[in-house]
């Protein structure tokens, strides 16, 4: 697995793979995902080669499995990002209401993690876990914006972060 991860890192794909897995909420390291997809492609290619008695069809089948796997992961990631963006107005409303009612920033983030639908609840829960491990709340929320590639949240969260 680390060999596959090293190859992806050398070719500059590791960050893209890691981001796609994070956004798709797949609990895999990049090396595990690469090894799994390559293994599945090899098995399918081998089976097609044996049953069709043609290595060309086996190679085509393996390539199709690779392409479909990448498209599926990116599709799931895109769906999660779109849901996060669609939930953003309600999320910001909950954050601002919590802050106006006297909650600290951490309490407001915790309220979103408890009350928001997925994937927003998961992302804010992750931010809470990061703050419990010593990361600043500002950095944890910035990481949510970066992980979800949400320019809107990054822009909107700026004023909220002043409430530290």
Computed CA radius of gyration, to the nearest angstrom: 20 Å
Order of SSEs: HHHHHHHH
Question: Which class do the helix and strand fractions yield?
Answer: mainly alpha
Mean pLDDT: 88
The poorly predicted ranges are none
Q: What percent of the residues sit in helical stretches (DSSP H or I)?
A: over 70%
- C-alpha termini separation: 40 Å
- The portion of residues forming beta strands comes to under 5%
- Report the total helices: 8
- The dominant shape is elongated
Number of strands: 0
Biggest sheet overview? none
What do these coordinates show?
The chain is an all-alpha fold. It has eight helices and no strands. It has helices at 2-10, 14-23, 30-52, 55-100, 105-115, 120-132, 137-147, 151-160. Helix 1 (2-10) crosses helix 3 (30-52) and helix 5 (105-115) runs antiparallel to helix 6. It starts with a helix and ends with a helix. The model has no long low-confidence stretch (mean pLDDT 88).
């Amino acid at each position: 697995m680390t060999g596959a991860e090293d190859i992806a890192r050398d070719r500059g794909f590791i960050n893209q793979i890691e981001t796609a897995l994070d956004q798709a909420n797949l609990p895999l390291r990049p090396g595990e995902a690469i090894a799994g997809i390559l293994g599945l492609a090899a098995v399918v290619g081998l089976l097609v080669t044996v049953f069709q008695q043609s290595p060309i069809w086996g190679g085509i089948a393996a390539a199709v499995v690779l392409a479909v796997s990448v498209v599926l992961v990116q599709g799931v990631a895109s769906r999660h990002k779109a849901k996060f963006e669609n939930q953003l107005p309600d999320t910001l409303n909950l954050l601002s209401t919590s802050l106006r009612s006297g909650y600290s920033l951490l309490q407001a983030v915790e309220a979103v993690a408890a009350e928001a639908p997925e994937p927003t609840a998961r992302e804010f829960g992750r931010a809470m876990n990061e703050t419990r491990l010593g990361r600043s709340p500002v950095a944890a929320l910035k990481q949510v914006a970066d992980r979800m590639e949400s320019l809107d949240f990054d822009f909107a969260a700026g004023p909220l972060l002043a409430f530290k």
